[in-house]
Structures are given as C-alpha cells and as structure tokens.
Design goal:
Structural class: alpha/beta
Distance between the termini: 24 Å
Shape: globular
Order of helices and strands: EHEEEHEEHHEHEHHEHHEHH
Strand content: 15-25%
CATH topology: TIM Barrel
Helix content: 40-55%
CATH architecture: Alpha-Beta Barrel
C-alpha cells in the first residue's frame, strides 16, 4: 500500500516531533503493510514550510531509515492551505507536488465552512496545469451535510483523498458516514492516513481496507491510484462494483 498523506518529517509542523517519533511512525507503516509514503508537511500560516525545507527533511529521513534498516520509501510532497496557493509561484508549487510529479498537489480542506475561494483556487490550479488532490473533505461540516458539494469539483478534475481514521470510525460517526458515502458515490480516489504522530491517526491503512469490504475497490484506493499519482500518470479506471 502507498500512503500519500503523512506528517512524518520531524520538527517541521504539528506532526512528528523528533526523529524517534518519525522512525516509530515508519515502523508502524511497514507493520501495517505500507511500502511507500509521501511526506506532506503543512504549508500554511503557522507552518510556512518551503520546498527547500521539505526536501532537506526528506533526505535526512531517508538516510535515517536506511541506517535503521526500515524498508519504507519516502516521497516528497506537501499539504497546502487554500490561502497559500496564490502566495506560491508555479515553480514552488511544482516542487511541492506529490512525489515531485510536477502534477498532483495536495490541498488542505478547511474544517469549517465552504469558502468560494476554495473552489476558485482549485479551478486556478487546474488552469495552471495541476491536478488538485483535496485532503480529507469528509471531516468538513459542510461536506458532511451535503457530500454532493464535491461533485462539480470532481467532474472538473479534482481528486479526493479520504482519511483512514474516517473510514474505520476512529474520527466519529459523521466522518465515517461521509467518507463511505464519498466512496460509494464515486467522489473519492485515494485513501491515506494523515498520520501526525505515533499516536495521532497513526497508520491504519489495513483497518480502512477492511472497512471498505471490497477488495478490488480498496486496492484501487490504496495502491493503484496512489501509484499513478507518484508516477505522474493518469488515474486508472475504477473497478466495477456491484
């Protein structure tokens, strides 16, 4: 499995605090069946992470994993706040794309409200040649009340990532119900952990796969689509469901 939303880089944001935290997270990923992750630190007012900062931290973590013999591939990336999209030039945005693909870019969904700016920024990314991946919208109250809000965005080319802890119920009933509705309604493309520390949404890909109760669909969400995003290639067709 490939987990494209993690906060594993130590000391960068509100994720792993220390290298030991990051290594513990890496071991948990491997034990859960994850072979590769994207390190996606926040890029927002409280954590204004630059591409240079992220890439240096990725290199350091890769070295530490090699030294510890932990078989986990770490790809670069970032989770960019909506209001930061316009602050970053195209070169910086390309450097912050998932796995350095230059194409797919993880955008943080606000937890409250559904601002017009969100729709405008996602459209602007599409016009600029990016494909946005909207992170954890199932945890937004407006989406919980009306999941169809995502339909025009998805039809316009935006991809949607739902959180493992939503699918398996760890984040509560509303997030769980909404995450499953998005999957059922073909409004979700990627499942990822959004793991922050060894104790906060840690790993959990396997429990999310089990919660989906559809092996082919789960494989598409945690392996096939993430692999395409890492490669910068087109998203494969979703498997037929009964």
């Amino acid at each position: 499995m490939i987990d494209l939303h993690t906060h594993i880089l130590p000391g960068i944001d509100d994720g792993a605090r220390t290298l030991d935290d990051a290594l513990d997270m890496a071991r948990a990923f491997v034990a859960d069946g994850v072979t590769a992750i994207a390190a996606t630190p926040h890029v927002r007012d409280d954590y204004p992470t630059s591409a240079d900062m992220m890439l240096r931290a990725v290199d350091a973590l890769r070295l530490a994993l090699d030294e510890e013999g932990i078989p986990l591939t770490v790809h670069p990336g970032a989770e960019i706040a909506v209001d930061w999209i316009a602050r970053l030039d195209e070169t910086e945005l390309r450097r912050l794309t998932l796995a350095g693909s230059g194409l797919y870019i993880l955008v943080e969904t606000p937890y409250y409200g559904w601002p017009v700016e969100l729709v405008e920024r996602l459209l602007g990314l599409r016009v600029a040649g990016f494909i946005p991946v909207l992170a954890h919208p199932e945890r937004n109250g407006e989406v919980q009340g009306n999941p169809s809000l995502l339909a025009p965005l998805v039809h316009g080319g935006t991809l949607v990532q739902v959180t493992t802890a939503s699918l398996d119920g760890r984040l509560g009933a509303r997030s769980r119900e909404t995450a499953h509705r998005l999957v059922t309604n073909r409004l979700a493309h990627v499942v990822a952990s959004d793991a922050h520390t060894p104790d906060v949404r840690a790993a959990g890909m396997r429990t999310a796969v089990d919660a989906l109760q559809n092996e082919a669909l789960a494989e598409w969400l945690v392996e096939d689509v993430p692999r395409a995003l890492v490669a910068g290639s087109d998203v494969p067709s979703r498997p037929p469901t009964s």
